[in-house]
Amino acid sequence: MTSTKGKRRGTAIHGFRETEKSRWSEASRAILQRVQAAAFGPGQTLLSSVHVLDLEPRGYIKPHVDSVKFCGTTIAGLSLLSPSVMRLVHTQEPGEWLELLLEPCSLYILRDSARYDFSHEILRDEESFFGKLRVPRGRRISVICRSLPEGVGPEEPGQPPPAC
Ligand SMILES: O=C(O)CCC(=O)C(=O)O
Ligand SMILES: [Fe+2]
């Protein structure tokens, strides 16, 4: 896998590699279609390639809001391999937060307020608790589909997609 986003995104993600993938096997395409049908409306255009993020067991993602320049109202992520905990914290009201237990093969959808008004993060192993439940972290792979910002047309085929 290549790692270009890490540089562009600074230090939000630690212990990872990633790629942007636009060619998938037929079986994978069928799964991605289910993800897209669940998460996106018919009027939404998606980034032409899917983001695949491979976090090592000690890897984690610091709180951030995906850039509005490159990513529209919806982020949908399929979690594979290790379970993990995603925490959402309101950017204006830090006392308003919630945590999601991301089981392997689960899908989360961050849309509208969850996507714009809350930061999201993946907890590091030492902090990986869902309530009182310890959620030990192993290697985690996520497959993330994003909508394009409104007013941005579909990308040119062959162009590298922008990072979120
Ligand atoms: O791994 C995930 O599910 C989220 C990744 C993420 O927040 C990002 O790439 O901006
Ligand atoms: Fe993100």
From TrEMBL:
GO CC annotations on file: mitochondrial matrix
GO biological process, one term: programmed cell death
All copies of domain Alpha-ketoglutarate-dependent dioxygenase AlkB-like, residue ranges: 15-146
Entry cofactors: Fe(2+)
Cellular compartment(s): Mitochondrion matrix
Pfam families reported in the protein's UniProt record: 2OG-FeII_Oxy_2
Protein keywords: Dioxygenase, Iron, Metal-binding, Mitochondrion, Necrosis, Oxidoreductase, Transit peptide
Cross-referenced SUPFAM superfamilies: Clavaminate synthase-like (SSF51197)
MF annotations from Gene Ontology: dioxygenase activity; metal ion binding
Keyword Ribonucleoprotein part of the UniProt annotation: no
Family the entry assigns: Belongs to the alkB family.
UniProt function note: May function as protein hydroxylase; can catalyze auto-hydroxylation at Leu-110 (in vitro), but this activity may be due to the absence of the true substrate. Required to induce programmed necrosis in response to DNA damage caused by cytotoxic alkylating agents. Acts by triggering the collapse of mitochondrial membrane potential and loss of mitochondrial function that leads to energy depletion and cell death. ALKBH7-mediated necrosis is probably required to prevent the accumulation of cells with DNA damage. Does not display DNA demethylase activity. Involved in fatty acid metabolism.
Protein name: Alpha-ketoglutarate-dependent dioxygenase alkB homolog 7, mitochondrial
Organism the protein comes from: Myotis davidii
Organismal lineage: Eukaryota, Metazoa, Chordata, Craniata, Vertebrata
